[in-house]
Structure formats: structure tokens, C-alpha cells
Amino acid sequence: MWARQVAIIRSTDGTRRTVELKSSRFSMLMCCILLFLSSCSSLLGSVGSAAPTHVLSKPSPSPTPARARIDSAAESPLKAQLAKVQQIMAGMTLDQKLGQLIIVEYLGNSYTGTRLQYMIANQYVGGFLYQESNHNFASPYDVISNVAAFSKQAMNDAKIPLLIGTDQEGGLVNRLYIFHGYLPSAAEMAASGNPQTANSQGSLAAKWLLQLGINADLAPVVDVHTVDPPVLATRMFGRDPNTVATYAGAYLNGLQLDGVAGCLKHYPGLGAITSDPHLGLPTVNRSLAELENTDLAPYKLMIQADHPAMIMSTDVLMPAIDPNLPAELSPKTINGILRNQLGYNGVVITDGLYMHGISGRWTLSQAAVLSIMAGDDLLEGPYSPSQVAVVVAALKQAIQQGKLTIDRIDQSVERILLMKVQYGIIK
Q: Are strands 168-170 and 163-166 parallel, antiparallel or unpaired?
């Protein structure tokens, strides 16, 4: 999402489609007469033009002739995808739209009659995450077929197909360990000296995740290792932005070309932190120039080249960008730099809003509203119906108070649904 014209127009088999328009002189003459009589020339003016870059805007209220719609869809898959998204959104209630902005976790290893089922079926959440730490893969869900059945059952209860994700990086963060054993870390992939190693690992991860019914991977890490000892240890690909972008890009392409939505993290960068963000709010005291040359550089390199499906914002304070708000709650960091300067127009997912760097100062409902105001799309962290209800109520109140608008909500819903269409989650 994201200055994503190339990725969006690529079909599932990796090919591109073009349209060749042919006509006889007679057909041309008849078209001219018809256009003159119907005054519809402006509606057909886009035929033969280049496919536009993804712009989140409302469709024209004017009806479009069926023939123009067909030609447009044939020439630009993006237009067809956006039309499909708009059609879905036209039938959604506000509760359903707000639900799409939430991706939940759940505790335990059962589904029927649980809080997770309620959040999916009754609160319309946009997706959920499998987390080993929440015992989601405890027996009997330590078997691939059982997890796949769990995912399918959840999908069947969803009004709109779910984003089902996990964090599969390899090494220390290896959610597939119980199914496939040890897999190399980012540092080990980079140590191979061959980006194809990372690409193969991404492709293999995609294959195995899809077998579980998982369609999104919150990976790869693109933090640049600049402080020792590193808090993220072997989760980083290297000490310079080019190495990070090369190997993380290879892993990301392996994931996404094989049908799993990837996610660059942790924006704007945790490579220089000296404390665990789960325990408090880290501060990175670098100049803006230093941040641009190091922490932000992988995003600058990869957004245009690799078209990440998602980017995860995180709770780190960078005073050179915003001295008051952590990144994921900061309009200067998300809308200002990531959206406007780096040109990313895709889905931004928050890090866990329960992490102490956020929860120590803001309630879940406050953090949720500030995140959407900042430019984030997906709120990660609620794990119960009561928490989802609190977030939804807070967003509604923010709309009533003028802090948020329906158009702003629609913008995020459109990004999320478009990603689901592009990755075959919405058929």
C-alpha cells in the first residue's frame, strides 16, 4: 500500500496484463457519432491511458457506462480491485468498518463458544494473530491440519474474510518451530552472503503459513543494528541500511510473491534502542539527518522497490521527529514522514498497544484514537470483547467530537480491504 502500482497490477501468476485495442475505420466513425450524440466522450477518455498510482479517493458519483467499466477493468486490475472494495464498503455499517480497523489476539487454544469467535462473528474484527506466548499452538493445535481447521472455522464466521497473521521471522521469533523446527534468523540469513537464502526462507515460510491458514506475516525486521549489545539480538539483518534492505527485501519478496502479505517493522526503527519497548518507552536521541541516513533508510529503499503490504509502527520516542509522542501515535511520524515524505500509502499496523511504552501513559481507547489520528490503519492488541467494545466506542466518540471523520475511517478501511483483495483473502 504505498506507491504500489507495480505490485498491484501484477497478477497472481506474476505476469502483467496489457490490453490491445483494435478497430476498423467504420467502427471509429460510428464511435465518434455515438460519442457526439451521447456526450460521453469524457467517460471514455481513460481508455488506453496508463494505470494510475493508487490514490485513496472516493469514486465519482456519476454512473459509468458498462462498456467503459469493462475496458477500464481489463486495462487496469487496480481499478477493478478498488471498485470491488468500494462495492463492499457501500454495504458496510459503521460498526463493521470500525471492526476492520482492529486485529485481535486471543488466549488459549479453543474456538467454538470463545471470546475469539464472538469478536469475529459479532464485533466484525478485521483479523487475529496466532501467538505462541498466548498458548495458541498448544495441543491439539500443534498439528498443521488442526490449525488449518481452526483458521477455516474462523473465516466461516467472518462477514468479511479475515487477516490471519503471526510473527514468523526465524531464529528467536520462530512461530513455525513447533511444526518445522529451527529456522535461520535474520542475522544468519545475511551471514550466508547470498540474498537468495533470505528469498528462499521467505518463500518457504509463505508455503508453510498458508498451510496453517495464515495469510499475513509480521516480518521482516528492517531495523539497522547500530548499538551493542542489540536489544533485538539476531533479529536484524545487518549494520547498514543497504544490507538490511537487500536481505529483508529478498525475504519479503519470497513471502509476498507466494501469496502472504508481509510487513516491514519496526518503523521508524529500533536498531539503536538500549531498553526493551515491552517494558517502557525507549528514546533514540539522533539528529534528523542521522535518522534519515540510518533508521529511515531501509524504508526509503524498500517502499518503492519491494511494495510491502504492511508497515508496523512502534512505540519509540524520537525527539528529532516528535519530542512528545511515540512513533505509532505521532502524526508527524506516520502522516508526516511515512505517508507524505516516503510516499507509503498502504496499511500501517500498530505494534501491540498493550506494550508498557504505550499502556503506561495512555489507555487502550486513548491509544487507539491517537493511532488512527496519526495515520495508522490497523490497531493491534485487544484480546477480549470488552476491549474491542471500548475501542469501538472511543472511535465513535472521536467521530462525534470531530477528532476523526467518516472519510478518515473509510480511508483506512479501503486500504485494509484493498490489501485483502490483492492477496486473495477477499476472493
A: unpaired
Contact (CB, 8 A) for 416 and 377: yes
* Residue tagged active-site, from 95, 142, 278, 407: 278
Q: What percent of the chain has pLDDT over 90?
A: 81
Does the active-site annotation cover 351?
yes
pLDDT tens figures, 332-361: 999 999 999 999 999 999 999 999 999 999
| Pairing relationship of beta strands 163-166 and 216-217 according to DSSP bridges | parallel
135: annotated active-site residue: no
Coil, strand or helix: which one is 216?
A: strand
Judge whether 86 lies within some domain: no
pLDDT of residue 349: 98
Whether the predicted pLDDT of 7 surpasses 60: no
Does the residue 392 lie in any domain? yes
| 26 pLDDT above the threshold of 80 | no
Q: Which of 167, 322, 351, 376 is an active site residue?
A: 351
The answer, yes or no, to whether residue 56 has pLDDT greater than 50, is no
In a domain, 162, yes or no: yes
Domain with residue 314: its CATH number is 3.20.20.300
Residues, the chain: 427
User: What does residue 173 show for φ and ψ, rounded to 5 degrees?
Assistant: -115, 85
Sheet holding 347-350, edge to edge: 263-267, 310-313, 347-350
Determine the structural domain holding residue 364 and report its residue range. 91-422
Number of independent structural domains in the chain: 1
Tell me the C-alpha distance between 175 and 180, whole Å.
Answer: 9
Mean pLDDT for all residues in the chain: 86
Examine residue 100 and state whether it is found in any structural domain, yes or no. yes
